[in-house]
Amino acid sequence: MIYRAVLHPDGNVSMPYISPRTEEIFGLSPSEFMQHLEWIFDLAHPEDRATLTQKVNLSAATLTPFEHEYRAIGLMSEPPWVRLISAPHRDANGNIIWDGIIININNEKRVEADLRAAEAKYRGIFENALEGIFLATLDGHYLSANPALAHIYGYHSPQTLQAARLPQMGFISPERYSELCHQLRQRGAIANFEAQIHHLDGSTIWISINARLSSDSKDDSTYEGIVQDITERKLTEAALHQERQRSEQLLLNVLPQVIVQQLKLGPGAIATRYEAVTILFADIVDFTSLAARIPATELVALLNDIFSRFDILAEQYGLEKIKTIGDAYMAVAGLPTSCFDHAQRAADLALAFQREMGQFQRDDGTPFRLRIGLNTGAAIAGVIGIKKFIYDLWGDAVNIASRMESHGLADSIQVTETTYTLLQDAYHLEPRGTISVKGKGKMSTYLLLGKRDPAASKTG
């Protein structure tokens, strides 16, 4: 709406021109509008008249243009907000003339109100969010932060966090922060980026960051995002990982690693047939009489010491310990991983057992003595059942190896003819003769005495 208003020297006001848009803005026709000689003030909301009067009077006194927004009254169902723009000047007759425009700014005011409401809502979310919300520079300083983020870092307020100017956002690892910046520059955004940061109290905490380059940043120098404190989750994961490792180590103390991996895949019997393995049984001679004479705790401690050393030797020579049965020790070479020298490994372990037993004495000062039996053949190895897992061996070769020990001589290593055939070139063996084995009848056996000197063998 365009108008011209004239203030005459006698104080009267006339309006030589007014555009027809008075109907649109005020709900008044131009003729009706003209009846309000004090229209500037009459059609202003009472609460806005004082400020408007002050601006008009100042403009008249100084002949300076002015612009003012105010609520208007009229016949419209919704009283409009208007913007009055006026430029006063004096004509040759001393009249003050205002040429101006009145604009309906209702839509503009609605947008402003919506923006204020949205801003208030965002501020509420920003201030009350449980996650840390921030705007930061890529060189690692917070430009803005909410209370939750300050709390995560241990600060009392966002202002103290920003004033701290934490280098690289407090990351413990500069390399990790460099990786964060690299991913932001390459992808524009990152999700679930985990890092360790310094807490104000001197401790270390874990955070997870979701962030993106700021849309307001023309040179990609700032980014915004959300931070979560995941310290508790990380501690739980570490504890679970440690517990899994402990559980797995317990399983590895009972079962071979390949069997543990198979058990992880699901329940069920695990069994594998091996065509060529060498089984070793070792038994402490006359241990029963010793057990009757010494206290139980001392007996167990002694047996634990002996068999612990045997465990170390079995691992050293590449045999799989199967189990202990009272004062007997069982091991096998050639499984669960097959090898061509299983008989040699078992023979070396048997000789090492004999040497190790020389370090122990009985309560009466006499040395301990071992009976050891070896046999080579096929066997089935596996795990059965659902409780108290044990990796065990089955087959005729196992039974014969046990008979080689039980029918053997003290301080001797008795082997079958099958094992003898595999050892004769590299070891000293002598025939023992034939022995009667249950279910097998007469069997030729040999006594393993030691290992041949490779140099002597070449010379011979």
Question: Could you describe the 3D structure shown?
Answer:
This protein has 460 residues and is an alpha+beta fold. It folds into three domains: 2-108, PAS domain (Beta-Lactamase, 2-Layer Sandwich); 129-233, Beta-Lactamase; 255-459, Nucleotide cyclase, GGDEF domain (Alpha-Beta Plaits). It contains 16 helices and 18 strands. Strands 11, 12, 13, 14, 15, 16, 17 and 18 form an eight-stranded mixed sheet that branches. It has a five-stranded antiparallel sheet with strand order 2-1-5-4-3, sandwiched between helices. The termini are far apart. The mean pLDDT is 85.
Q: Please report the distance between the alpha carbons of the first and last residues.
A: 127 Å
Can you give the mean pLDDT? 85
Low-confidence stretches: none
CATH homologous superfamily placement of the largest domain: Nucleotide cyclase, GGDEF domain
CATH topology of the largest domain: Alpha-Beta Plaits
Number of helices: 16
Overview features:
18 strands, single chain, Beta-Lactamase, alpha+beta, five-stranded antiparallel β-sheet, 3 domains, Alpha-Beta Plaits, 460 residues, 40% helix, 16 helices, eight-stranded mixed β-sheet
